[in-house]
Structure formats: structure tokens, C-alpha cells
Amino acid sequence: MRYIVLLLVSVQIMLSSCTQNIENTNFVTVKGDQFYLNGKPYVYAGANYWQGMHLGSEKYGNREQLKRELDQLKSYGITNLRVMAGCEADATSKFCMQPALQTSPGVYDEALFEGLDFLLSEMAKRDMKAVMVLSNFWTWSGGFSQYLKWDGAGEIPYPQMDEFGWWDYGEYTKEFFNSENSLKWYNNHVDKVLGRTNTINGKSYNEDVTIMAWQLANEPRGYDNEEPFQRWIKSTAAKLKFLAPDHLVSLGSEGNTPSVKEGLIAERDNAYADIDYITMHIWVQNWNWFTPGEGEGAYAKMINQFDDYWNDHVSVSAKLNKPIVLEEYGLARDEFSYDIDAPVTDRDKYYSYVFNNMVSNINKKGSIKGINFWGYSGEARPPRPGEYWNEGDAFVADPPHELQGWYGVYNTDLSTLQLIKDQMSKL
């Protein structure tokens, strides 16, 4: 009997020690609805900086610019970057990042991979964390529709072209979850990225503490493919946990979008044990809730809609006992201008409201643990504001499938950056 008691005490001590060791590492860990880093609760202000891989490429990008932009972000308290770790395209692909990381199934441009290596190595020097997005529902990094095109599904129905709409694109892209070859190529890409060794610092990606999380995709939607969509979430999350057990895993979805036809149910989609935290995206302009310049009445109505969406997902987080991150939100410049010199009065007002909500939630020990604004353009400028990106143009925060200059925060938007720093200092 005494032996059994001693054994149980030993096991309890071991388990307690394991928990402490997990929480006292340079990896971001999760326990209940809380992130931890080095044994302390971890909350963050972040940015979408999807273009970091391209900017870090010695062949295609500008490494000195990348370092300056990382320094500026860090100086304003922005320490978490959501970046693309996948980009698929061929020579005929439209509204897509070019050059591509993967130019055909399994064929990679090493110069771009080295750009991702450089980005991670520079982030490590600044104690920043990366969320690595492995694919995309939308065309701007190739993603699901490019895999389908390679599998013979026909030409992509780009919504930017007059003959197609967003629902046409969704109906095409949802078949990714039913395409054996597309899923195989996606899984091969997962293996490729997580099995990579950084050529700059020699660290294995799946053991790199700079990486906070792997994300299945940007804004995946199931539409009416509920069973294959859920099967993909469950199997991919498990695969990522197996390949990188020290990293977190997230889905990358918008949450309960205004249209139920998109097949998203936040509570169901994030319930799997291998999904560590919940993501939500709030797009007040894309969802026709508000446009800068509409006035105080329209702004107040939008805030009510924002609050409903926010509270709905905080409730889901409580049910699942997982942290939640608002990882995409943004607003155009005043009067919906694409001019880089246009003021950002409405944007700053909105950003301030969002960060106030986050600070209030955290101070109440709530489950909102991070915010990534969309997105950081840094020093880059669109050569034709209000038009689509063309190959050879600088990458700003607005991806190639959107009009350039829409949501991007530039290095000269100091009022926006300063309010982020001021709000985070309250924590």
C-alpha cells in the first residue's frame, strides 16, 4: 500500500513538472483559454505581414527593407506576424502572388524558401512570433483553387472578372476537399515546409521557437461539403501536431460569417483536440456594415454589429475553453480613398475601439489573447492606387486579388501605430 501511495505521488510530481516545463519554454503554449510564454501569460498585438517571405528573398525582395520594417513594428509593440508559408501559381495564374513558391505540384523555388528562412531568422533576433499559414481558400496566394486547376478542374472563375462572382469562385474552390490529388499535394506541401531546415540559422522549422503556430489555411470554407471539410480539419490538425508537437495549431477561419451558406460553424470547426485556439476575422466593410465617410449613425450601427460578432465568438471560446484571436480586421482610409496621403480618422477610431475591447477583455481575464490588424504595408507603395496588382509591383498589405491601397497601414501611418502601442501599454 505504501509503495502504491509513493508511486502515485511520484507520478503526480512528474506530471506537475511536465506542465511547468511546457509553460517555461520559448514555445507559445496553451492551457485552457490562456496562452503562455516562458511561464507567463502571453497576449499580443500583431499584424498580417503575408508578404514577408517574398520580401526576405535575396533574389526577389529587399532584405534591408524587411529589417527596417521589423524594427518599426517591434518599436510599436507589434510582436506577432501572420505570414504565408505557401504560395502556388503557374505562369497563367491571375490575381496571385508572383513569383510563386510552388510552381507546379512538388516543384519549389528555393530562392523564395530562403526568403522565408531569412524572415524567420530576423524575427528570432527581435523576439517576434510567427503564425505560418500553409494555404489559402482565395486566389491571392494560389491555394486551393490552384491545386484544383493543376488537377484538371478547369480554369479558375476569378471573381474579379466580369463573367464570374464570388459564389462562382466558392462553388469551384469548395471541391478541394473532394479532390484526391489536391489533398495529396497539399499534404505533401505540409510535409515539405515542416520538414525544412532553415538555411540561415540551421534550425528545423518544426522545432523553431519563433513559430508560434501552424495554420491550416487562410479562411477555409466548407460550403455544403460538411463531411469532407470536417475530415480535412481533423486529419490536418492531427498531422501538424504529429510533425510539430511543440507548436500550436489553428484553423484560420473567419468564424460564424454572416452567410450560413459558407458552411462555417465556429464551435464545431474548432472543437477538435488538435486545434489549440480559435480564430475570427471581422470585415465590416467587406460585409457591407460600414464604409468610411458614411457618418456617425452608420458607424454606431456598425459597432453594434461588431460587438455581436465579437461576443458570439467569445461565447464559443468559453464553451470550448480555448483562447481566441482576432487575426484579421481593417478599414479603408477616409472617404474610402486609395490615396496614401488620405487621412485615417475613421480607421484610427475603429482600431482604438478594437484594442480597447481587447484590453478590457484581458483585464477581465477573458479569452481574447491576440489581435492581428490587416495589414502592414511598411515602406511599399502601390504604383497605381485603386487598381489590381501586376507582376513586378511592390507587395503592399492588400493582396493581389484586391484593389491596391485599400486596407494597408504604411510606415508613415504613425497615428495608427502609436495608438496600438498606447493601448498595449495598458496591459
How are the SSEs ordered, and which strands pair?
Elements: H1 2-23, E1 29-31, E2 34-37, E3 40-41, E4 44-48, H2 52-55, H3 63-75, E5 78-84, E6 102-104, E7 107-108, H4 110-125, E8 129-133, H5 143-150, H6 166-173, H7 180-194, E9 211-215, H8 226-243, E10 248-250, H9 266-269, E11 278-282, H10 296-320, E12 324-329, H11 345-363, E13 368-373, E14 376-378, E15 409-410, H12 414-425
Parallel strand pairs: 4-5, 4-13, 5-8, 8-9, 9-10, 11-12, 12-13, 14-15
Antiparallel strand pairs: 1-2, 2-3, 6-7
Helix pairs in contact: 3-4, 5-7, 11-12
Report the major sheet.
8 strands, parallel
Residue share in helix: 25-40%
The helix/strand series, from N terminus to C terminus, equals: HEEEEHHEEEHEHHHEHEHEHEHEEEH
Shape: globular
CATH architecture: Alpha-Beta Barrel
Q: Within the CATH hierarchy, at the fold level, what is the topology?
A: TIM Barrel
Please state roughly what percent of the residues sit in beta strands, choosing from under 5%, 5-15%, 15-25%, 25-35%, 35-45% or over 45%: 5-15%
Number of strands: 15
Number of helices: 12
First-last Cα distance? 50 Å
What count of structural domains? 1
What integer is the average pLDDT?
Answer: 94
